[in-house]
UniProtKB/TrEMBL annotation, chain A:
InterPro entries: ABC2_TM, ABC2_TM_bact-type, ABC_2_transport, Nod_factor_ABC_transporter. Pfam families: ABC2_membrane (PF01061). This is Transport permease protein. It is a multi-pass membrane protein. GO terms for cellular component: ATP-binding cassette (ABC) transporter complex.
Length: 259, 322
């Protein structure tokens, strides 16, 4: 059955992309919200980048990671939503009744979700360039930012797919998003760490992995190739991905097994 | 590989709620046979289908489908069967044609072959006109027909259909009956169908098992079962309820070859030839002075059959105990 894995994964992925495109309302709101971060906060808060802590950095480059992470979570969340939809429509059972590779049945929506993420992230970066973004590390830096977005998206895709497979319930999968999304705001979202005044928010930002994602993206966009600063995001991704992908794999195994 | 189903002592207990959904069920379906599982809500029909089609594992017992064990060789079983579960399994965002082509590709058809197969099947289930529309806009009957087409993609040796006509209007139901008959007679497909309708099992199946509360309570050809049950049912109530027990005894004495059952204030009489025996009952009661308040002649429903079979069982137990 090994050679079927590729073919089946391909079929499942194409099918998921097709159905996502046919439901524009599954991604347009998230894209608008993500673009909103860029446009509104760049317009409204960019004055604070005059503060010395910013060391002359461009606020657009500072806020861009927030917008990207928001888009990434929206895109990757599509994986869980597709799975829930299939379970609710009985289509998931129909797939289990065919000789299709069990792994492909679960991988298809996850890969499609990741592709959705890449497209959304590129769109956001494109908008940022239109607004006048300048990146110190150039093309390589953009690629790094994209990779971090994919990694963080994968962590969330694992989580959302896991919840979907475990519950088969749209509300529960939706509720899952509400755990990752607020993490965006309990972080160095709008101002650097040193400017955060509330002690609780400082603590939240320190334990919140999203902070390290933001900071490594900002390093690439603003500071340049500072190895350990860049790696903090990579480590955060490795740790969170290990947890969520394991969760997804265990849930998937349960969902396709015959208890 | 063969087109047979062999089930031995199958039991399924759901941990959730500790429900024994299937209790020590055994039966065999021959290659090319049309077999029906007839039973009311919650009888264990869907659970049996899910076990036989590799979706869930049995708690104990053994099942072979198409010559392969459903637990040890599920992949092989899946190649040779077509399954329409009770709930249709389709993606509402695809068109009917795309849905069938996808199913064909999963089963290993190449692109062009898959397209050809989809066209054939769309014609068979009369969905060519709706083929380019999204399934989300299909009516219930159209979805059922599409679901049936999907089960046929791999030219299965054995078809499992869980209540394929429940909720359909008569014309859709007829269309599905026609197609199932054709598959069974012309193609030689073995069919395992579940239904709540006696009429459906009667008109389609070679053999019927009646399942109730997880247990098979009777098996036979429609003719055998009917002979056991009676073709027609006379239901009557007496003016004076106090006479009922006496009247039932009297009738049993007079009409030895019919089954007479007393339920609440009604007397049920299972007979072979309705009108003739109805007149006889009226005549006998008239003679003895039992005044009839109301009398009706009908075909027995599934309910009546269960009542009869379960009451026979009880009587059997009583007889054994004495
Ligand atoms: N996944 C499950 N978990 C717990 N109990 C279940 C599950 N599936 C079915 N049951 C129980 O098992 C019994 C048999 O259910 P089943 O669905 O097999 O009946 P059925 O004959 O198909 O009924 P219907 O005509 O309503 O479809 C019922 O009591 C049902 O509540
Ligand atoms: Mg059922």
């Amino acid at each position: 059955m090994g050679n079927n894995l590729w073919k089946d994964t391909w079929l499942m992925t194409v099918r998921n992309i097709k159905t996502t495109l046919r439901n524009p309302f599954s991604f347009i709101p998230n894209l608008i919200i993500s673009a909103f971060f860029l446009l509104v906060y760049e317009g409204g808060l960019s004055g604070i980048s005059q503060l010395p802590t910013f060391e002359g950095a461009n606020y657009l480059a500072f806020i861009l990671p927030v917008s990207i992470v928001s888009a990434a979570i929206g895109g990757a969340g599509g994986a869980g939503q597709s799975i829930v939809k299939d379970i609710e429509n009985g289509f998931f059972s129909r797939l289990l009744l065919t000789p299709a590779s069990r792994l492909a049945i679960v991988l298809g929506p996850i890969i499609a979700g990741m592709l959705q993420l890449v497209v959304q992230t590129l769109l956001i970066i494109g908008i940022a360039f239109l607004l006048g973004l300048e990146v110190v590390t150039g093309f390589g830096g953009i690629l790094f930012v994209l990779l971090i977005a994919v990694g963080w998206g994968l962590a969330f895709a694992g989580y959302s797919a896991g919840v979907a497979l475990r519950t088969g319930n749209a509300q529960a999968a939706q509720a899952g998003t509400f755990i990752f999304f607020p993490l965006i705001f309990l972080s160095t979202t709008f101002v650097p760490y040193d400017l955060i005044e509330a002690q609780w928010l400082k603590i939240a930002a320190t334990i919140n992995p999203t902070t390290y994602i933001f900071e490594s993206m900002r390093t690439a966009l603003i500071d340049g190739w500072v190895f350990w600063d860049l790696m903090q995001g990579v480590f955060a991704i490795l740790i969170v991905c290990t947890i969520t992908i394991t969760f997804a794999a265990v849930s998937a195994k349960k969902a396709v097994s015959r208890g | 590989m063969n087109g047979k189903i062999v089930v031995e002592h199958l039991t399924k207990t759901f941990k959730k709620g500790n429900v024994q959904a299937v209790k020590d069920v055994s039966f065999e379906v021959e290659e090319g046979e049309f077999f029906a599982f007839l039973g009311p809500n919650g009888a264990g029909k869907s659970t049996t289908v899910q076990i036989l089609t590799t979706l869930i594992n049995a708690t104990s017992g053994k099942a072979e489908v198409a010559g392969h064990d459903v637990i040890r060789e599920p992949e092989k079983v899946r190649r040779y069967i077509g399954v329409a579960l009770q709930e249709t399994g389709v993606d509402p965002d695809l068109t009917g044609r795309e849905m069938i082509e996808l199913q064909a590709n999963i089963f290993g058809f190449r692109k062009e072959e898959g397209k050809k197969r989809a066209q054939e099947l769309l014609e068979i289930v009369q969905l060519t006109e709706a083929a380019e529309r999204r399934i989300g806009n299909y009516s219930g009957g159209m979805r059922r027909r599409l679901d049936l087409a999907l089960t046929l993609v791999n030219e299965p040796k054995i078809l499992f259909l869980d209540e394929p006509t429940t909720g359909l209007d008569p014309s859709n139901r007829m269309a599905i009956w026609e197609e199932l008959r054709r598959l069974n007679e012309e193609v030689g497909t073995t069919i395992f169908l579940t239904t709540q309708y006696l009429e459906e099992a009667d008109s389609l199946a070679h053999r019927i098992s009646i399942i109730n509360d997880g247990e098979i309570v009777a098996t036979g050809t429609p003719k055998e079962l009917k002979a056991q049950i009676g073709n027609d049912l006379i239901t009557l109530t007496l003016k004076d309820e106090n006479q009922q027990a006496e009247a039932v005894e009297y009738l049993r004495g007079q009409m030895a070859d019919v089954d007479v059952i007393s339920r609440h204030n009604k007397v049920l009489i299972y007979v072979e030839e309705g009108t003739k025996q109805l007149l006889e009952v009226v005549r006998l009661f008239d003679q003895e002075g039992y005044e009839i308040e109301d009398i009706q002649l009908s075909s027995p429903t599934l309910d009546d059959i269960f009542l009869k079979i379960t009451s026979e069982k009880k009587e059997g137990v009583r007889a054994d105990g004495e």
